Amino acid sequence: MEPTLPVLFLDVDGPLNPWMAKPHRRPDGYTALRMRPTGWEPPRPPLRVWLNPDHGPLLMGLGCRLVWATTWQAEANAWIAPVLGLPELPVVHWPQLHQRDPEGVHWKTRHLVDVAAGRPFAWVDDEIGRRDTAWIARHHPGAALPYRVDPATGLRPDDFAALREWAAGQTAGA
Predict the structure, then answer these.
(1) Is the separation of the CB atoms in 46 and 147 below 8 Å?
(2) I want to staple 109 with a disulfide (CB 3.0 to 4.6 A). Which of 67, 78, 98, 105 is the partner?
(3) Are 122 and 64 in contact (CB under 8 A)?
(4) Position 1 pLDDT exceeds 60
(5) pLDDT tens digits, residue range 90-130?
(6) d(CA 25, CA 82)
(7) Residue 163 CB partners (closer than 8 Å, separation 6+)
(8) What pTM does this model have?
(9) pLDDT tens-digit profile of 20-41?
């Protein structure tokens, strides 16, 4: 019987698109793209997105079931996945975007724990805080890795190594 892969919930802006990098200083290895997802139609200028095509194979090699966990929602499959060479990925559908939480956790936290349904998961995002990590530890019965990425640098080689090591530990224990 093949072990079940842990889930990796993946945000776009921050981890894949280092939107906080110094203005007009595209990070090495990244391609500058102009995109028009929903909400960025004319007369609004196109959205500037920096993506590193090398990230696609690295993500595919993590040993996880990749799932978009982003406000891009299904549009990540149309705009982001092709640049990275990723297949169409499942998408977390948010019941509500950017709602305030009574305990001060990120608006994604509770829903991701619900979607994980006890399965091991990693969550890669630039907005994860201590409250999210603590809330997940109290409410998720399985292994979880809330993994914060600096939105000025995006995912780095050390991040991929840490995620790969965590995923290997989950499948080894299955």
Answers:
(1) no
(2) 105
(3) yes
(4) no
(5) 999 988 777 777 777 888 998 899 999 999 999 999 999 99
(6) 23
(7) 8, 62, 64, 122, 124, 145, 147
(8) 0.93
(9) 988 768 888 999 999 999 888 8
Task: Retrieve residue 144's tokens.
Answer: 């979880």
Give the whole-angstrom CA distance, residue 46 versus residue 12.
Answer: 17
* Alpha carbon distances (Å) from 158 to 31, 102, 114, 149, 165: 21, 34, 29, 11, 10
Q: What is the DSSP string of 84-107?
A: HTPPP--BPPPSSSSPPPTT---T
Q: Give the CA-trace dihedral at 127, 30, 9, 74, to 10 degrees.
A: 100
CB–CB of 144/137 below 8 Å?
yes
Closest residue by Cα to residue 63 from 152, 123, 3? 3
